[in-house]
Amino acid sequence: MIAVGSGGRHLEDEIKILGGELIETEIKKFPDGEKYVRVLGSAEEVTVVQSTFAPQDEHIVELILIADALRERGAERLRAVVPYFAYSRQDRVTKEGEPVSVRAVMRALGTYYDELYVFDMHNPETLKFFPGKAVNLSPARAIADYFVERLGDGLVLAPDKGARERARAVAERLGLEFSHFEKERISPTEVRMTPVDVDVRGKNVLIVDDIISTGGTMVRAANLLKEMGAGKVFVAATHGVFAEGAIERVSNAVDELAVTNTIPTPVSRISIVPEIMKL
Ligand code: R5P
Predict the structure, then answer these.
(1) pLDDT digit string, tens, across residues 75-124
(2) What value, to the nearest 5°, has the Cα angle with vertex 213 and ends 209 and 217?
(3) What is the DSSP string of 48-68?
(4) What distance in Å separates the CA atoms of residue 2 and residue 78, rounded to the nearest whole number?
(5) Distance between Cα 211 and ligand 1 center (Å)
(6) Domains (ranges, CATH) in the chain?
(7) Atom of ligand 1 minimally distant from the CA of 122
(8) Distance 102 CA to ligand 1 centre (A)
(9) pTM of this structure
(10) Nearest residue to 42 via CA among 65, 75, 67, 9
(11) pLDDT of residue 236 exceeding 90
(12) Which of 6, 97, 162, 171 is deepest in the core (most CB within 10 A)?
């Protein structure tokens, strides 16, 4: 049985189409802003699907309240499927006095959930903070399937070395070459990138990253590829966090932008629901 919170409502129809049985949830806000949650069913084992995009804190609180309600109704085993895990980038202390925020959220969820499944965690190492079983799911197959025809015999690039494995995973499914850019961040909104060690001339290229936020990384990479004589340039990411204006900025610089639906956005064209239904 599956229950969704308001951070999973956008996935509900497809979950049903793919045969998922849902426990209905009622989620409202009290006049003072607190959340009201009610689960209209129960089961011994329940998977709660809740992505924690903005408003992040509300979605996290809902995850906890849904779990408490399910335990109250007798659930014995709870799995959290959190397609986008908020606070995942706050994974270290940079100034004395700061928390390791991702650890704090994982520990809080661990008091209720036995298992945690996330998509493309920013730093997969942080999954060790979850006290139970924690799994990092890959959207590589879904991304590859979406772009297979558009790319032809093109290539897949990561915008930086750290994202190289992601590019490899997509490229391997497509049977294509892959590589990466050398990227240097010079300010929160500016990146300097140096060309890759592959010949992009005349080739369609797919750039793959985990997150698009301001879009600066992708725009810079796409412009470089055009200067280098690439054919069509496509951009994909797992999580479209998108700061204001980012969708337009990236869309204007590339032939197509598509992200997965871990976060609902106008360009969330690649579904991760089939991966969830395999769990
Ligand atoms: C960085 O480590 C991430 O993988 C992304 O490359 C980054 O979050 C993208 O940010 P932006 O869209 O602001 O360039």
Answers:
(1) 999 999 999 999 999 999 999 999 999 999 999 999 999 999 999 999 99
(2) 55
(3) EE----SSHHHHHHHHHHHHH
(4) 10
(5) 5
(6) 2-137 (3.40.50.2020), 140-271 (3.40.50.2020)
(7) 4
(8) 17
(9) 0.93
(10) 75
(11) yes
(12) 171
CA-proximal residue: ligand 1, atom 3 (nearest):
211
User: Hunting for tokens 């598509």 — which residue is that?
Assistant: 258
Enumerate residues lining ligand 1, CB below 6 A. 159, 163, 209-217
Task: Check: CB of residue 15 under 8 Å from CB of residue 276.
Answer: yes
Strand bridging mode 205-212 / 155-158: parallel
Amino acid at 157: L
User: Helix, strand, coil proportions of the chain in percent (round to 5)?
Assistant: 35, 30, 40
- 29 included as an active-site residue: no
**Burial (CB count within 10 angstroms: exposed 0-12, middle 13-18, buried 19+), residue 166:** buried
